[in-house]
Amino acid sequence: MKKSRRDFIKISGMSALGYSVLPAFLKPLAAQPNLMFPIHNIPEKKNLDPDWIRSLYDRAKPTLYTKAKNELKYIGMPAGGLHAGTVYLGGDGRLWLWGIYNDDREGVDPKTAIWNNGIEDVKVRNRDGANYVEPSIADNKRVLEQGFAIRIEAEGKTIIKELKESDWQDIHFEATYPLATIRYIDDDFPLEITVQAGGIFIPLDPDNSAIPATVYSIQLKNTSAGNVKASVVGWMENGARKITAKKNEGLRQNTVFDGTEFSGVVGSFHANDLNATQQRDAGTTSITFVGGGAKLNVDANPWPVTDQTFDSENKKMATAEATDKLIGSICAIHEIVPGKTWEPQFIIGWHFNHALAKLNKLPEIEQGYYYGKRFKDAADIGTHVALNFEELYGKTLLWKNTYYNSSLPYWFLERTFLNIGTLATANTYRFSNDRFWGWEGVNACEGTCTHVWQYAQAMGRIFPSLERDARQRTDFDIAMQDNGGIIFRAEYESRPAIDGQAGSILRSYREHQMSVDDKFLKANWPQIKRATQFMLAQDKNGDGMIDSPMENTLDAVWEGEIAWIVGLCIAAAKASQMMAEEVNDKAFAAICKTFVEKGNKNMADHLFNGEYFIHRPDAVEGRKKLGSYNTCHIDQVYGQSWAFQAGLGRLWDKEKTIKALRSLWKYNFTPDVGPYISTHTGGRPYALPGEGGMVMNTNPKNEAKPYGDSVTWQMGYFHECMSGFEHQVASHMMAEEMIDEALILTRCVHDRYHAAKRNPFNEIECSDHYARAMASYGTFISACGFEYHGPKGYISFAPKWNKENFKAAFTAAEGWGCYTQEISNKQRHIFEVKYGKVRLRSIGIQKLISFNKVIVSLNGKNVPATLMDDQVELITAVEVAAGNKLTIELG
Q1: CA–CA separation, 734 vs 737, rounded Å?
Q2: Most buried residue, 90, 434, 476, 871, by most Cβ within 10 Å?
């Protein structure tokens, strides 16, 4: 978030509650009692249908969006590699948006939307929710011609159908990131058509997950009684210089590239002026077929698709004028016998190695992107993926099947995971020197902002090396001041943010835990220690509660002792204590331990008002400045939420913590935000009437000046529902056994992003694909009760429900796989590694039956082990490789 948001805030009335001269559009509400400080009107009784709540636990099936229900037009699943621009897979299987041209504009679809805030129509920019109130429509953003068509010859008839919405009776889209499944339905068609499409996505392998390509696996099953001759043609427009090319500036060129196991067409642009090669859209695109025997056409014309589109085959190269379209196509043919399946596979690739001009503060941009270093052009990309298709696509499919083959509900698995697709948009970059860098939202608020990205739990678990890079290269190098403060936007700021400071310390402990050994911790301990010392120094009176006014994620400097900040810093100090103990820095571990103990006691004693944790005003400044004070703030116990994510255990008082969460449920959660935002005006539209959510900050005691004497523009944030904050609360509720509430809150976010209303894959805050929303994966972690410490070889699961028959995926430092827990007259715990390897020495378990005996085996071979309380200790560490199982049986 940045202060430049105030442009919207002023026109939308965000400042209305605190300004002495009200904007004209507030006059219709002049008769409302207590206009300046509206009455709290979130209902304590939520009146939710018990049957609906029970249904949230059902395994059910993947979320299905259909043509019949008009649910396809907004769908845009990020379908390329990490940090390779934004290419969307649409609901009917066609690619759209094509945000690959290094566009400086804000958001995936820069626009100004019109929204009625209950008073009048106002203009809403991308960073203020334009795509929430007016979602981008796929058919309006088809920048490049791309698609597939099928021709069948059977029973003397020829039928041609494109894989697009208008050609089929119905289309079903299963929203299982990273590979969506799309089914094309027509009663009179003799083939079942099923497409799986998406980017290469392999957890723990950020290199192969960062290929600028979308893969299509098109399955055709013959359901008729006779043979069917089937042809599949795919086409791709030459996308080079698509945006900036002018007439007579050069020529488009399509060229064939091929090998024994693949063939493709690459589109390039040959400019008359060599300087034109530096244009942001100078590059190449490609379409590749995996296998042999396909027919290639470098100058196809597929509109409308006819027999000629399938049958024409011409020369190895073709050119066209700069402003003309030039299409490359590939056709594969196969005769399918009854009951059999044919599965041709295609790759769409792109290569535009020019960084954004607005990132000119970063020296890295001169050398371009990481993928530009790996691949010379889109033909090289197509060749690489084709030659390694079985491995790359196979492992992507393996992860998808591993993750979704779970006892957890499909909808829950989808919502908690899909936000990692943010990494496969123009929100993030990986430069040629391998440095990871990100915005808050697409092209909005630069600098891999510490106070936003620290909420995002997904990347640290799925691609931990990227987080380690961000700590080591940015937080503890470029951004670190001599006094240990971490500049919260690195090159784009000059000061630390206190919550981002604590978050970077906490993430350092998580990154250490997600490492195979202690090299990361030892290499970075001096900087981690300095960062912690800086944080501890912000406790002016030595009571373990941070009270120095510093910037925070709500874009303000708050005075006093703020439960949210105090608790987060206690958690960070606890993490530093744990790290200090591991590096044998006993003196500093003792300092941190004292701070934690003192802070825990004082937070519970002095910042709890009987119902929830508050913001105690500064003794001198009082409530002159903006703050949350005695209101109910969404992040008030965020530090404990983080502690559960990092395996730090219980911090301050459990009973008070749970009371605080129940107060958030009572005072901040509403099944319908409509009545609240109609009276508490000024927030941005991230939840609309008829939608449920948790409001950021409420005034349940109806105090006259709840947010201080001098209310500023940032107060408008208090009236919003921002999904990243909601996800962290849901993850905490899940960890505290408030399972109903955690599922309901997560489901409310899921339903707000239903495809009938907007893009399910784009959770919006300050612009599109907002990084904080990756906090959703923390709720998955909490549901599994997952803890892991790679250097110690420790892993633990404590599922929150379905404990007798639980199954879920897990990721470790060097491998990932599936965990199964079965309870009958015995307890069985099975770790099945699917990829890489996992080193184990100590396994934490739930004691669900009475037992005193343990048998551990690796692929049926006994492994000596002892049982100590709720922990199984292996006499010698074992390495469980891909394809192997470690089984623990207790009885």
Answers
A1: 5
A2: 90
